[in-house]
């Protein structure tokens, strides 16, 4: 059904969009899409890698550098990080620098060793765990 001229003019004046449909399920699909767009996105944290701090070094420009062994997954420079001590999260932030020997690297895989520094965190101790993660958007039902 098409709206008459007065209704179309009023809708235009009030900035209201009028849509017409011949097939009801197209209307339902559009309403569902519009409703999903109104909801705030929901995210889950997906662990991408884990490393154990073996040794802590002091570097003049970056401060504390953690000498780590990657125990699972992949550690990537710039990743979001959870810093755990005895199973308790004590800091969240980002990886500032990531090196393998003297080379700057983008990522280090399981079984390899690396040196990394964290943005604004210096209280590193051997035995601490560094867990990297990314946020994945979950589609709402």
Automatic annotation (TrEMBL):
<dbReference type="GO" id="GO:0005829">
    <property type="term" value="C:cytosol"/>
</dbReference>
<dbReference type="InterPro" id="IPR004161">
    <property type="entry name" value="EFTu-like_2"/>
</dbReference>
<feature type="domain" description="Translation elongation factor EFTu-like">
    <location>
        <begin position="63"/>
        <end position="130"/>
    </location>
</feature>
<protein>
    <submittedName>
        <fullName>Unannotated protein</fullName>
    </submittedName>
</protein>
<dbReference type="InterPro" id="IPR009000">
    <property type="entry name" value="Transl_B-barrel_sf"/>
</dbReference>
<dbReference type="InterPro" id="IPR023115">
    <property type="entry name" value="TIF_IF2_dom3"/>
</dbReference>
<dbReference type="Pfam" id="PF11987">
    <property type="entry name" value="IF-2"/>
</dbReference>
<dbReference type="InterPro" id="IPR015760">
    <property type="entry name" value="TIF_IF2"/>
</dbReference>
<dbReference type="GO" id="GO:0003924">
    <property type="term" value="F:GTPase activity"/>
</dbReference>
<dbReference type="InterPro" id="IPR000178">
    <property type="entry name" value="TF_IF2_bacterial-like"/>
</dbReference>
<keyword id="KW-0342">GTP-binding</keyword>
<feature type="domain" description="Translation initiation factor IF- 2">
    <location>
        <begin position="2"/>
        <end position="32"/>
    </location>
</feature>
<dbReference type="GO" id="GO:0003743">
    <property type="term" value="F:translation initiation factor activity"/>
</dbReference>
<dbReference type="GO" id="GO:0005525">
    <property type="term" value="F:GTP binding"/>
</dbReference>
<keyword id="KW-0547">Nucleotide-binding</keyword>
<dbReference type="InterPro" id="IPR036925">
    <property type="entry name" value="TIF_IF2_dom3_sf"/>
</dbReference>
<dbReference type="Pfam" id="PF03144">
    <property type="entry name" value="GTP_EFTU_D2"/>
</dbReference>
């Amino acid at each position: 059904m098409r709206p008459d001229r007065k209704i179309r003019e009023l809708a235009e004046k009030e900035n209201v969009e009028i849509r017409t449909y011949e097939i009801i399920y197209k209307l339902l699909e559009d309403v569902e899409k519009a409703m999903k767009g109104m909801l705030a996105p929901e995210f889950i944290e997906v662990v991408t890698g884990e490393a154990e701090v073996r040794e802590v070094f002091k570097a003049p420009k970056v401060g504390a550098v953690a000498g780590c062994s990657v125990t699972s997954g992949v550690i990537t420079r710039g990743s979001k990080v959870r810093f755990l001590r005895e199973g308790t999260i004590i800091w969240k932030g980002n990886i500032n620098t990531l090196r393998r020997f003297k080379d700057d690297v983008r990522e280090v895989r399981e079984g390899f060793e690396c040196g990394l520094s964290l943005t604004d965190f210096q209280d590193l101790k051997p035995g601490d765990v560094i867990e990297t993660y990314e946020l994945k958007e979950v589609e709402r039902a």
